[in-house]
Each structure stands twice: as structure tokens, then as C-alpha cells.
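Comment thread on ticket #2218

A.B. wrote:
> Attaching the input chain for the structure job we discussed in standup.
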Amino acid sequence: MRIPRRIFHQEDEASNSAAAFGAFPRRGLQPSYPAHKMKKLLIVDALSQAYRAFHAIPPLSTSTGIPTNAVQGFASMLAKGLEDHRPDYLAIAGDAGGKNFRHRAYPEYKATRKPMPPELREQIPLIKDVVRGLRIPWLEVAGYEADDIIATLVRRARESGLETVVLSADKDLLQLVGEGVCVASPHREEEPYDPEGVRERYGVRPERLADFLALTGDASDNIPGIPKVGKKTAAALLEEYGDLEGVLAHAEEVSGNVLRENLLRYADQARRARVLVGLKDDVPLSVEIGDLVRKEPDPEVLGPLYRRLELKGLARKLDTGAAEECVWEEVESPRAVAALAAELAEGGTFSFSCRARPEGGVSALAFAAGDRVAVVELNADAFRSRKLEALAPLFTAPGLRRSVHDGKAAVHLLESEGIAPGPLQFDTLLASYLLRPARPEHSLETLCWEYLDWKLDSGDPGSSGFLGRQARAVERLRAELLPELEEKKLLSLLLDLELPVSRVLAAMEDTGVAVDRARLKLLSVEFGEKLDELSARMYDLAGETFNLNSPVQLRRVLFDKLGLAPAKKTKTGYSTDVGVLEKLAEDHELPRLLLEYRQYFKLKSTYVDALPALIAADGRVHTTFHQAVTATGRISSSNPNLQNIPVRSEEGRRIREAFRARAADWTLVAADYSQIELRLLAHLSDESRMIEAFEQGLDIHAFTASLIFGVPIGRVSPDERRRAKTVNFGIIYGMGASRLSRELGISRGEAEDFIRAYFERYPGVKSYYDRVIAEACRSGYVSTIFHRRRYLPELKSQRPMERAFGERAAMNAPIQGSAADIIKKAMVELFRRIRDDGAAWKMLLQIHDELLLECPRSETVAAARVIRDCMEKVVSLRVPILVDFKTGSTWGEMAAYRVEG
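C.D. wrote:
> Ran it. Output below, let me know if you need it in another format.
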């Protein structure tokens, strides 16, 4: 039977390609003005706008650490300028750098200016690339500043009969304002500066601004004027005597001894300042006004640039035309489906995509191999089962290399049709996650616009063509991502860890965990009564009823009525966050009760009342595990989040009691890595004392306390051990003296001494962290023991808080990420052992360094031995890896369990 062929094209929405910034008019680049209207030149002061953009937008970077806030801000400002002024001619004026005639006249010119921040300097070439893609001339001339280039362009524009708009926040350029010339800034809400606007700001007209600055001086450029001459005095002098020379010529007539003496004494200094602040309009430019005619952007330059910089908003506004033509085949008959399956199996390599149907199961499958794309619709007819039967070997047969986007979701869909898929060889979602771990999402649409210049979200998502395009995208993306994974030594992490873990998580989601609905109902009533009791007590203390969840009403009661001292202020008023309430609770009962109220309220709303609605027909809650969210490689959980139920509070433990084993003769088994992060710190730092303590099985916190306090380990007090424990774990997370002082309730000086003593006792740890931070500053990332990367652009920041965060992350990420990788490897090995042994045990949850399983009570010993074997032997470190066990009928009523043998 002949297979029908249909064609679809990868197209953007129809739009003018000039809409790179969403600023170009639909009717074309050359607006048809009335005959009497002057044409317009827009000149952009490059560095002024770049600095403004850099400081206006919070630090942004790509997932690989390239800073982009100035690029994005510059593009947005330029877009606004184009939209507001609709110019016919365009130019960008930049500084070539180096010395110019002003430096020769005054060597201290701009000597006090801080150097350009490295994060901005790194973005200047990228901004130039954007301008090049927009086909706007970027003008620089050695020996001259951008201001002089702008002045020259303004003069030439006047001579050519053009209106001119200068886009800049530089006050020096206000000298140019006059007939047909204005200065505008995207940050200024008012109209662009005209002569009257300049006069309102400085008290003088634009042509006298250079004289004005010569009198007052310009601190930003380190140009001294006349001492004791401020703005009002300068404006008054110029109003009286006309210009600078007029003022100096009549200095003897000026009233006020100090002012008169300064005008006479510093006359030459003022004349020099006049030369420095004045603008030259005879710069030898290599372009004529005609060369500045506005042109259409070049999507072939901008598209790849925006994708590399992950500027999705800008990239989506580009009209790149048909980036890809794809021919897809709709395979309809069972015989044609069988022929397709045979052909794909013979080729050995293919990509696929699935479409779910609302009632469950798969409604269609698409396959891509090379340039061929085929779609199989699985309608609810007599042929549906025959088609699935013909396709099943493609997913189950060993040796076939299968690729997909979001393999976990695909596994769920295929298993719902009774197909138990074999291992996948590529998952574009996980590949993207390994390459760009800080990216907030890794959708197929995002990857398509970044790597392929496709707009995958156009078209009908329910169509066969759209599904085929998805399969084709996976096929193309594999070819793009695979070399990058190999180059960065991440392919093994994908194949040997992330892909197998994906299958384990799919099985855990299917299994779920049993929940006692009746117990949750009782807790809901109990927590509700507790909230009512706390509310009543707080109303009594306040002498009125008020909305406990309203920050505005809470501020009024705490600070106005009760007179408590506010601790910190936010944009909306004094803060009532946890830190503030904890401080206030030391002096008053109401904030203490409010903290307790908030705890009960959160637990009741988030878990006690929400969980019953999530219990499926099988009596179990099926959380969703996320494998591509955290930058460190840890697995997260949602709907519901079962990783954040408090374990240290009594209320949290009572919620956990609602999670139970599947039957009375079954038990829950919790296996938790013992101090895995500290053991990894000992391994990575090769700190001999720490290694020795773990090898001897000593209490690491007591051992650390004995070193710091200089007492035998057997005589360490509970308080000394507590302090050592705090600093042990705090060091891993880069805790500084301020945080440690708060945690331990000691002075900052004592905390500094404590940290210093720690590093003196563990010099290997200090050396390790110094090496890690230095290497991260050089390379831009840190790695786990399995080569997982975390990029840290914050290390290049000039902002101390951001740089400090980057240093803390550099210290912690290799340890936390390695711990995440280790438990993932243990999950894969344990899943394999359970499957190969045909055991009934089920893996239920992963909570950071802990696994929760259920097994028949009679098999507890056997299960614990296998779990221990898998978890403790999954990797070899310089120190032994140990696992602590607990068992019990519910998650909240578990007791320590010793594994014998």
C-alpha cells in the first residue's frame, strides 16, 4: 500500500524580519512621512547605555556562565529608542579606548574613575555583535571619545537637513541640544531634552553648558573648575556676563571676597576645564550620513547569537523564515506499520515522540531516523492493538538505539499500553540538563530555538505533523548535543547514571506510597483546633481580632499597638518574616505564638488538608520526581513534595505517621547515608586527620571538638560537640563568621576564632577549598567526582555578596553534587538487584541522602543486607561509606535497625 506523504514546514509567524527587538513598524523600515517632515537620525551613546543597562538589570547569565544583563538591557533600551523615535538613520558611537587630546591637556583627566566592571567588559563584544546583527554602524575613532563622534554626526546631520536624537544619559551631550537636536534617555520619563529642558535643569541654555561646567568643574571626569562655585552661582555669573571669558574678564567686579579671589586665582584652571568639557565636531569619520540609512537586521547573525546567549525573548521576535523543511509520512494500515517497524529495527537507531490521549494511554507515535519521519495514529478502532503489537519490539528489543525527550514520561505512556520499554540511549531533556544545569527549564521548544532555530510551538499540537516535528527535533538535537557531551566528558554521566535513574524514578512514581486517609482527617481536626486556640490567645494579647495572615495588619498590631521595635524594613513596610519574629519573640509572647501558628498553618494547608485529594484509587500517593531541576544534581519531588515534610518537629513526625507500609505484614525500611557529605569532604580534601577518624569509626563531631578545644575525645562536653557539629556542617556550606555566631549564640570574634581553629586542625580542608575556588574562578565551574558540572558566574562579580555566594557554592557543589550522584548510582544498582532477584521489595521515595523502601516483614533482614551492599559499595572513597537503617509500620514511627551479617 502506498504511504501518503504530507509536508510541513518549520516556520516562524509571519513578521517583518526587522522586528528583532519588537520595535520595527509592520509597514517597513522606511516610514512614509509627509513631504514636509524632516528625516531623523538616531545616535546611541554606546557606553552610556551599556553602563545604564548593566546597573539597571540584576545580574543575569547563561547556564554556562556568560553574563548577559548588559546585553539584554542594551537591546531593550535600543528597542525603546527605535519604537519611540522611528529613525531613518542609525549610528552607535563608541570609545576606542586609550589616551586622547584631553589626557594630553590634563593627565589627570578621568583618573578617579573606577575601571569598568569585568562582567560588563566581557559583554561589550557581545553588544557589538548584537549591533552588527542589527546592521547598525558602530563608530570608534582612536584619539577621540564617543561624545566627539556624536558631536560630529550632529553637525553633519544639521548640514544634511536631518533631525537628530541622541540616546544618552551623559550630561556633556546636552551641549548639542538645539534646533532639530534633542537628547533622550530610556530611563527618563519626561520628554527628551530641548533647550528649555536644559535651562530648567542647569539654569543655562545648551550653548552655555560648557562654560557652566568649566566654572563648576565635573567630578565624574575629575575636572576641577573654580573652587566654591556651585550650580546657582555659575548660572548667575553666566546670566550676568554671557560666557566664561566674560565672567573671567569681569572677575574684579564680582561681589564676595572668596568668590572674586577664586575667579582670579583659578582662571587658567577654568579655561582648561572649558577645553576638556567642550566637544569636538570635526572627528575624521570614515562614513557619510548616507551610510547610516536604517537597514533590516540580519537573522543569520542574530539568531545563533541570541540562542548562544539564551535570550529567548529576543530570539522569538526574529523572523528567520523556514529553518527546516520536514517531510512526514502518516502510516495507517497494520501492514504498513509492521513494515515501518522492520525498517527502523534494521537501521538500529531512531528517535520517537508520544502523544497521550485524555483517557489514558498513547494516541499516536512518531518516529524519525535520518531524514525520514513517520507518524502512526492509534485510533480507537480494530487496528489499534495490531499496530501496537507491531511497534512493541521497537521499544523492547535489545540493541536498538532509542532517543526521546523526557524518557520518564515516555516510559509511563508506553507501560500504560502494556509495553515494557528497554533502555534508552539518549534523552534530550537530560542531555540539556547536564550541559546547562542552571537553566530553569529544558523543554523541547527551548532546545529547538537554541540549537536548531526552530519555533516548535507553532502549529496544532494535536496534529500528526506537530508530533512528527517533535520526533524530528529529537533526532536533530541528538546530533547537536552528543558532541558537546563528549567534549565536556558528560556522556558517561548521561548513559551510565541519568538515563538508568530515569527508569528507577518512573517505577517509584508508579509504585507510590500508601497513605492513611483517616489519620490525616484526625490530624486536620486536631491542627484546626490548635490554630483556633493560638488565634484566640493572640487576639487576647492584642486586645482585638485581626487577620493573622495579613502583613499590613500584623505590622500595625506588633509595631504600632504593642510598641515592639521593628528589625528591618522592606519596600512595602517593616518585615514580619521568621527572622524578625524570632527576635521579637525574645521580648513578647505574641510573636512566639505567631511562629507556632504559622508552623501549624503551613503543615495543615500543605500536607494534612492537601494530601487526601492526591490519594489515588489504589490508596497511594504518587509523587512526581524531578531529575532536571536542581543545579547540584539532587532529585526533587512535587505534587506532593514528600522531601520537605519536617522530620525534627513532633508535628512533622505525626504527618509522616500517615505514610505506611502496604499491609500489616509489610514494613517500611529507611536507609540513610551516614554523614556522607563529611565523608566526601575527607575524601576530596585528603585531610589525614579526618580520614583517620572515619577509618577508626570515631564520632566525627566529638573528634573535631577534641581537636578544637584541646581535650580528650572522651571528655568532650555535649555543648562542645554541638558547636563542633555546627562548624563541621557549616564549613561544607561555606558558613562564615556572621552566620556561625548567630547559630551558636557567640560573638563574631569568637566565631572567627572558631573557624580559624578548625582550618588549623584540618589544614587539608583549607587547602582543598582554596584550590577549588581558584580553579572555579579560572574555569567558571566546579565538578563532582563523576564530572557533573555546576557553572558559577557569580565568582566574576564585582558585587561582594554575589561573589561570596559563588565561593560558598564552589565549596559546597562538589560535595553535595557528589552525594547526589552516589545515591543515584545506589538506586540504579539496588533497582537492578531487586529486579534480577525477583524480589517483592519496592523502592518508594528518595529524600536527599535517604531511601525509603517497603518489603514483607519476613524479608526485612534480606532486604536490608542487599540495600546495605548496594549503598555502601557503590563507590570507593578514601573513607568507609556507612548506612544507617530504621524500620517501622509507618514513616513516622520508625526505630533504629541493626543489620547483622
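A.B. wrote:
> Thanks. Noting for the ticket: The first strand starts at residue 5 and ends at 10.
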